[in-house]
Amino acid sequence: MELPQEANDLEIKKKFRMLSILVHPDKCKHERASDAFHILEQAYKALMDNDKRRMYQRVMREARDRVEAARRKENMRRIAKGLEELTSDNL
């Protein structure tokens, strides 16, 4: 139930409503439903704050770029040793 990294307010609201129905303590009888709902609510509030959302998006882009650079470096090392390259499907 992933949310696109560049999701807009409407997409975030829809995803929150869908997930909140699943974990709301009144609907879900799991012993940790209240905790899950609280975490979901905090995430929703953070993502609805445009400044925080932009910061999270920037951090995620930077992390992805670093991982991709490290993957390229590792693949160059593996090629030099005659090993199989790492695939991009397991980043």
Question: Explain this structure to me?
Answer:
The model has no long low-confidence stretch (mean pLDDT 92). It is elongated and about 60 Å long. The protein is built from three helices and no strands. The protein is mostly helical and 91 residues long. The two termini are 18 Å apart. The relative contact order is 0.09. The chain has helices spanning 9-23, 33-48, 50-80. The chain folds into two domains: 8-48; 50-91.
Short description:
With 91 residues, the chain is mostly helical. Helices cover 68% and strands 0% of the residues.
Main attributes of the structure:
mainly alpha, 91 residues, 0% strand
The N- and C-terminal alpha carbons lie at a distance of: 18 Å
CA radius of gyration: 19 Å
Q: Could you tell me the strand content as a percent range?
A: under 5%
- Overall average residue pLDDT: 92
Discrete helix count: 3
Q: Bin the helical content.
A: 55-70%
The major sheet is characterized as:
none
Total beta-strand segments = 0
**Total count of domains:** 2
Which H/E pattern describes the elements? HHH
